[in-house]
Design goal:
By secondary structure, this protein is α+β, with helices and mostly antiparallel strands. It is built from 2 helices and 9 strands; from the N terminus they run E-E-E-E-E-H-E-H-E-E-E. The chain has a single domain (9-150), classed as 2-Layer Sandwich (60s Ribosomal Protein L30, Chain: A), CATH 3.30.1330.
Length: 157
């Protein structure tokens, strides 16, 4: 892959991106979750980055909510020509950065659970996951090869 800017895309919270062309999608996660979908036969795929698990029906139905982000990402990769039966998933994030044990504030756990449940319902195999813990992550996905690199800031452990 060349180092041209067009080969890179930074994914902000509450957004998603997908491509059949080779592109490196990068995002940074805390309690948010990123789901990468990739077509293992034909290539191409994408990533979402959601902040909260469920849209409550009020306001805009944006991809900042996992229930919306998951649907939109699947729609987008299928529009690109990816085949549902060849999709695999990789999941990242869902950290408990604040370190509280209070269930109401365990947004990362709830985000991860929503993603896993949705993929199970869709019968899309999860081939890699790095979820939970107390550290944020930087994630880089290659949309053509499906390779995902993930790193944490271990100095904060």
């Amino acid at each position: 892959m060349s180092e041209q800017e067009s080969d890179k895309y930074f994914l902000f919270p509450g957004t998603l991106y997908a491509s059949r062309e080779e592109c490196r999608i990068t995002t940074v996660l805390g309690s948010c979750v990123a789901v990468c979908l990739w077509d293992k036969v034909y290539g191409g795929g994408g990533m979402n980055h959601f902040m909260l698990p469920l849209w409550n029906g009020e306001g805009l139905a944006t991809p900042k909510y996992g229930s919306i982000a998951m649907e939109k990402l699947l729609e987008r990769v299928l529009q690109l020509g990816c085949r549902r039966e060849y999709l695999v998933a990789k999941l990242f994030g869902g950290a408990n950065i604040t370190g509280t044990g209070n269930e109401a504030f365990m947004i990362g756990d709830r985000n991860a659970a929503l993603a896993l449940q949705t993929l199970d319902e869709w019968k899309i195999a999860v081939v890699a996951a790095d979820l939970g813990g107390r550290l944020g992550r930087k994630v880089i996905m290659n949309t053509l090869t499906g390779v995902v690199l993930v790193g944490t800031d271990k100095s904060k452990a």
